[in-house]
Amino acid sequence: CIKNRRGRRETRERKERKERSKMFNKEVKPQRMYFDGCFDVMHSGHYQALRQAASLCEDLIVGVHSARVIQQTKGCPPVQTDEERLRMIGSCKWVKEAVISESYTP
């Protein structure tokens, strides 16, 4: 018997089983993930969604809906221009790349 970190005794076989299960249970994240939205007036909910999405992948690509698509879908134009919203999302630390998105399905 050997002692583990907590000072408890355990058999060598049990310790080896634990180590093997750790190796096989490692989470494999997808390389890239796409996330889109209007992102007109940014708030904590947007940032939380981006943070959570970024935790699920290696590189987060974010699509910002164009002003034309937002006008067609919601009936009113966005407060900020496409370039302003694109720059704002692109500067977020969890975002690898920001692009203008022309598709929007609520």
3D structure, described in words:
It is a single chain. With 106 residues, the protein is α/β, with parallel strands linked by helices. 40% of the residues lie in helices and 21% in strands. The chain has four helices and five strands. It has a three-stranded parallel β-sheet. Strand 1 and strand 2 form a beta hairpin.
List keywords for this structure.
alpha/beta, 4 helices, 106 residues, three-stranded parallel β-sheet
The share of residues in helices is 25-40%
Low confidence ranges: none
Largest sheet: 3 strands, parallel
Over the alpha carbons, how many angstroms does the gyration radius reach?
22 Å
Q: Supply the helix-strand structural class.
A: alpha/beta
The sequence of SSEs as H and E is: EEHEHEHHE
Mean pLDDT: 84
β-strand amount: 15-25%
Distance between the termini: 60 Å
The total count of helices amounts to 4
Number of distinct beta strands: 5
Q: What general form does the structure show?
A: elongated
- List the strand order in the largest sheet: 3-4-5
Topology:
Blueprint: E1 2-3, E2 9-10, H1 12-24, E3 32-37, H2 44-55, E4 59-65, H3 67-74, H4 82-90, E5 97-101
Parallel strand pairs: 3-4, 4-5
Antiparallel strand pairs: 1-2
Short account of what is shown:
The protein is an alpha/beta fold and 106 residues long. It contains four helices and five strands.
